[in-house]
Amino acid sequence: MKRYKQILLVLMALALLITGCAQNNDNADQGTEPVGQADDQSEFKTVVDVLGREVEVKNEINSMVVTPVPYGSIIYAIDGTMEKIVAVNPDVKSEYEKSLLSTLAPEFADVSVDYVSTDFTVNVEALLNLKPDVVVLWHVQEDDIRKLEQVNIPAVALDQGGGSNLEKTRDNIEIIGKLLNKEQQAENLNQYNIDVEDYFTAKQDQIAENEKPKVLYIRDKNLAVAAGGSFNRQLIELTGGINVAAGVKGSWTGVSMEEVLNWNPEIIYLSNFDSFQPEDLYNNTIEGHDWSQIDAVKNKRVYKTPVGIIRWDAPCAETPLFMKWLGQIQQPELFNDYVLDEDIRNFYKEFLSYDLTEQELNKMLNR
């Protein structure tokens, strides 16, 4: 009997030993290294940029360098903050100081301009110390992209063609949404853009029946104008005007005063790339120019383009509002089924979570 008990104890010990070995083998199969790899994978995601590059970035982006000027404001419209932006093009900072972002995003005041030049070039060596999670730049910045890849700083390219094309701008916004895990916010912003474009597209037959005013969009006192390849030409024509500089090559292209006199525009828009005002044309105070014989000047139809969270001259989150503003100047009798002030207020409430004051709205619209 005693021997039987001893044999039974040995068998039980063997069973426990076999069970323990099996558990150890299972743990080995699911050991710390594979678990660690899974955790690492969850920290990253892949974003496909406009060049078709699959860029691995952190799942949670906390530091961004942004070279394209309008995209600081677009990031704010999508993310609701500019706290993730650590460096920008110096032109962004100058725009910020005269826009509503100085009120909405005071955190942006201390963002560095030391890592990006006004020509969009990135100081890659300096960025090694900054260690950003991602650099957002134009697709034509091939040298910067290559240098950033060499030092393992993620670079996500946006389409610079977004500067002349509504659809490409929306593609860029979609990429920003993916970077920030704010896909729905980006989709909502893009859908509003599409809805407004569709509104004007649906009225093209009616526009064709109306007399279209001759329009000139001027960038600066040197007479760089919105030419045939410009974003502004697309919007002018979509909203019922004729861009008199459509036959000029390029995007922003210099012309002569003689050409302006020959075109004799009925409406002139002055950009916010320059500080000039309608009164400068009305009072003929720009040296070397004579505006007195231009119909737009004689009829007091010179308009300064609005500034919201950024100047509306460039593709931005407020481009749909820009279209509505242009439409009511160029075809007021046709585009009279919306109230611009209300639409601007609603946009700021819905997309920027901000209630515009009357004073801010009047300042935006230069009245």
From TrEMBL:
Domain named Fe/B12 periplasmic-binding: residues: 63-334
InterPro entries assigned: ABC_Transporter_SBP (IPR050902), ABC_transptr_periplasmic_BD (IPR002491)
Keywords attached to this Swiss-Prot or TrEMBL record, sorted alphabetically, are: Signal
Range of residues in the leader sequence? 1-24
Q: Name one Pfam family in it.
A: Peripla_BP_2
In terms of superkingdom, the source organism counts as Bacteria
Q: Does the keyword Signal apply?
A: yes
Which SUPFAM superfamilies does the entry mention? Helical backbone' metal receptor (SSF53807)
- Tell me its family: Belongs to the bacterial solute-binding protein 8 family.
Q: What's the protein here called?
A: ABC transporter substrate-binding protein
| Organism of provenance | Dehalobacterium formicoaceticum
